[in-house]
Structures are given as structure tokens and as C-alpha cells.
Amino acid sequence: MTLVVFDLDGTLLNGESRLSEYTAETLILMQSAGIAYTIATGRTLQAALSPLDGHRFALPHILKNGVIIWCPDQETYSHSHLLTQQEVSHVLTAMTDQEITPFVFTLESDGRHAVYHGTLKNEIEGRMAQLFEDERKLPLEPLSAMPDSSSVICLSAMGPDESVQAVIDGVASEPGLVSYTGTAIQNQKLRWMDIHHSNGSKGDGVTTLREELGFDKVMVFGDGENDLSMFEVADESYAPANGQAAVKSKATEIIGHHNEDGVARFLRKRFSLGHL
């Protein structure tokens, strides 16, 4: 049996962060053919569920780049690689020193999710905060209100290239942390970054699901740096034409652009799922 694993943004979702009608129909065809599929994304649970609603993603979801695995049927997490506030305190200090506002995603002791943030310094950070609270339905509170019992899923931030790089360089020497980064707003030279537990990766999540669910093979699709770990453990890996160069160089094959249903068109041809 083969498990198909999709990255979301830039891969399965289109430029509007939605499943196109063609891709949604392809998922139905996969269900009818008995082909198992799930996601491995950098998104939180709330952010991932929104575009997937109604499309029968029944298997466990690999979230926040493998930090947590969500089981929809049990509505609980089966695996997690969380951090204590003490383990990330120096990262928060580094962000503050670089005048970058941290957003700390947490899992509370009662199972709730929340986001705590430093002082918002500009309109862009304000829009980020609004996105988390309104679109992704995450409670948003000041960093000073974070309970000592909160476990950290990840730290996220956006800032100038050189400031973000200074924080990333500091994390590189930490054995328990890993960072991902990329361009946020090109013409303003802004980058985003995510920092989380080094044991959490998409590759680790894919390996866990393969072993626990008993799949013989794994086929993965991804476009970014955070997908490379699952490319390394998969039997087949595919990058859309819009993928980063480093990712496409590691792929089994480069397929169509995410805005042109590249993943869905490949799957219909590969598994003979009807008309293309």
C-alpha cells in the first residue's frame, strides 16, 4: 500500500490558499480507488483544517513541520515534540534584541491552542496578528500573559533579512532547535522564520505514519525547504514547477505548477484516475 503525503501551501493548494475544484475532484477519485492520502504542513491545526474542510482527510495530519501529529478520528495528538519556555527564552531575547516581534504558538495544559506575541511594531505585524486571530481562530494575547504551564509548539516572526539571519545563526548552534526561513515580502526585503524542536520534522512525521499505519511505500509532494526531510525518507518525491531550486534538485520528478493543478494532474495520470 502507498501513502500519499501532500504539503499544502505552494503544492496542493493554489495561489489563493484553496483546493481548486479540479484538485478536490481528484481527491474524490483517489478515495474511490482506495489510495490513502494525508498532509504534512507547516500550518497549525486551525490553519490546516480550513482549506481541507469537507475533503475527507481522515488519516493523521502532520502539522507544524512534524512537531505534532493530529488524529482527526480521536480529535487528539498522537505525537508531539514540544519545547518548554525555558528552552526558548534565549531565542525570545535574540528576537527582541533584533527588534523582531515574536509570535509564540503554544499548546495549553487543557489542550487549547494560543498565540502570544511581543509588542507589535508596525502594520505588517498587526496584519499577522489579525490573521492568526480572525482567520485561524487562535486566541491572541500579549507575551506577558503566557502561563508557565504553556508548552511551545514553535516561534514565528517576520523581519528584515539581516535581523532574521542573526537569529537563525544563533539557533544553528542549538542541538534542540531547528529553524526554517523564506522570503515574506520581496520588495521590502522581509523574511519569515519558524523555530521549533529539532526532533520534529516532516520526515520524522512521515516515517512515524508509515510505521504505525503499515504502509509499504510513501509518495510525497512539496515545494519548500521544510519538505526536504520527507523527500529523504520517501520512496518517491515530487516538486511542483514553482518549487525552490534546492527542492526540485532532490525530487524524483518535477511536475506542474501549483496554480495549474500540477499535483492533481500528475496523480490522475499516475494512478489512471479518469480524464486529465
Order of helices and strands: EHHEHEEEHEEHEEHEEHEHEHEH
- What would you call the quaternary organization? single chain
According to CATH, the fold-level topology of the largest domain is: Rossmann fold
The number of helical elements comes to: 10
Q: Give the strand content.
A: 25-35%
Radius of gyration: 18 Å
Classified in CATH, the superfamily of the largest domain is HAD superfamily/HAD-like
Helix amount:
25-40%
The span between the termini is: 24 Å
**Number of domains as seen in the coordinates:** 2
Structural class: alpha/beta
Q: How many beta-strand elements?
A: 14
Account of the 3D structure:
The structure is a single chain. The protein has 276 residues and is an alpha/beta fold. The protein folds into two domains: 2-80 and 200-270, Rossmann fold (3-Layer(aba) Sandwich), CATH 3.40.50.1000; 85-197, 2-Layer Sandwich (Hypothetical Protein, Haloacid Dehalogenase-like Hydrolase, Chain: A, domain 2). 34% of the residues lie in helices and 27% in strands. It is built from ten helices and 14 strands. The protein has helices at 8-12, 21-33, 45-52, 85-97, 123-135, 161-172, 202-213, 228-233, 245-248, 262-270; strands at 2-6, 36-39, 61-63, 68-71, 76-80, 103-107, 113-117, 140-142, 151-160, 177-185, 190-197, 217-221, 236-240, 253-255. The strands form three sheets. Strands 8-7-6-9-11-10 form a six-stranded mixed sheet, with helices on both faces. It has a five-stranded parallel sheet with strand order 2-1-12-13-14. The protein has a three-stranded antiparallel sheet with strand order 3-4-5, covered by helices on one side. Strand 7, helix 5 (123-135) and strand 8 (140-142) form a beta-alpha-beta unit. Helix 2 packs parallel to helix 10. The protein is globular and about 55 Å long.
